[in-house]
Specification:
Elements lengths: L12 E4 L4 E3 L8 E6 L6 H12 L1 H6 L2 E7 L3 H11 L5 E3 L6 H6 L2 E2 L4 E2 L1 E6 L5 E7 L8 H8 L2
Parallel strand pairs: 3-4, 4-5
Antiparallel strand pairs: 1-2, 1-5, 3-8, 6-7, 8-9
Length: 152
């Protein structure tokens, strides 16, 4: 079951593409967080979605929102992808234990071993304010995220 709006977001620590630990709760009191789970680096829909985030990153930054991407890819894959695409937001590796954070958020597809497209907006108090979950092959409409950010 997915994390629900109005509930405290489960805390976690994962390594980023530079193999540095990033802890969700470290943003509490300072920044809102847009947590973007996606299936795989280098895949078509994921690249399109994250390139749109990259191109519109200033809108999130101006609203005090830290964007964080999460997938089950290794940090090495994430590093290559971030460098290739010019992503300037953290990409976190939920590789091992495989998909544990995605499972906690209710967005892990056991049959395929990947995170589905789950989006969670978490406020500065650590409370989930927006949830959207899309199935495999279904791209997200990022306008809904922006409306949720505006409502903070």
């Amino acid at each position: 079951m997915a994390v629900e709006v109005g509930k405290k977001a489960p805390d976690f620590t994962l390594n980023d593409s530079n193999k540095q630990p990033v802890t969700l709760s470290s943003f509490q009191g300072a920044k809102n967080v847009l947590l973007v789970f996606y299936p795989f680096a280098f895949s078509g829909i994921c690249t399109g979605e994250l390139c749109q985030v990259r191109d519109e990153l200033a809108e999130y930054s101006d609203s005090n929102v830290q964007v964080i991407g999460v997938s089950v890819d290794t940090p090495f894959s994430l590093k290559a992808w971030a460098d290739q695409q010019g992503y300037e937001f953290p990409l976190l590796s939920d590789f091992w234990p495989h998909g544990e954070v995605a499972k906690t958020y209710g967005v892990f597809n056991e049959d395929h071993g990947l995170a589905v497209r789950g989006t969670f907006l978490i406020d500065t108090e650590g409370v989930v304010r927006f949830v959207e979950i899309n199935g495999p092959g279904e791209a997200r409409d990022q306008d809904a995220w922006k409306k949720a950010v505006s409502a903070l």
